[in-house]
Amino acid sequence: MVAGHLQEKKGYFYIVLNYKDECGKRKNKWISTGLSVKGNKKKAEALLIEARKNFEVPQQVDQENPLFSDFMLQWLEMMKHRIHYHANIRKALQYAFKTDMIPSNPADKVERPKKINLSAVFMTKKR
Questions:
Q1: Category of 28 on φ-ψ map: left (φ > 0), alpha (ψ -120 to 50) or beta
Q2: One digit per residue, pLDDT tens: the chain, 127 residues?
Q3: Closest by alpha carbon to 86, among 66, 116, 118?
Q4: Helix 85-98 to helix 68-78 angle, to the nearest 10 degrees?
Q5: Which of 15, 21, 40, 121 is the most buried if burial means most Cβ atoms within 10 Å?
Q6: Residues 6+ apart with CB under 8 A from 86
Q7: So which domain of life are we looking at (predicted)?
Q8: Residue ranges of the domains in the chain?
């Protein structure tokens, strides 16, 4: 259970939870109870106990060594206006290779998908 206390602010009770993140840095999480200060101290204390029991420390994403899936989601968000999946995945892996995130580009060992030739058909409206 994390440490916490009630704080009065602008006539309302707030729950303030104190915890340490993965790096050991102290953090505060403020949660509004929505309860006014007058006549609600017991209710606010009950909410504080419940919040302390149910609180989970937020997990930090490792920026230096992200998971491949997280990296691909970021990359595809940047490249969403293009539809060529193989080319985008290869570009993402090449970028990761150039920035020394991976030792080599595994897409270099994969054959490119065959191009599908589509023929255009023009439709006209008959009168």
A1: beta
A2: 789 999 999 999 999 999 888 778 888 989 999 999 999 999 999 999 999 998 888 776 556 677 778 877 877 777 666 577 777 788 888 988 888 888 999 888 877 777 778 787 878 887 6
A3: 116
A4: 120
A5: 15
A6: 107, 110, 112, 113
A7: Bacteria
A8: 3-54, 68-109
Q: Which of 42, 101, 98 is nearest to 66 (CA)?
A: 101
Rounded Cα distance, 101 and 82, in Å: 24
Token pair listed for 55? 């609180």
The reported pTM is 0.47
Q: Are 2 and 49 in contact (CB under 8 A)?
A: no
Alpha carbon distance 39, 44 (integer Å): 10
Cα separation, 41 vs 120, whole angstroms: 73
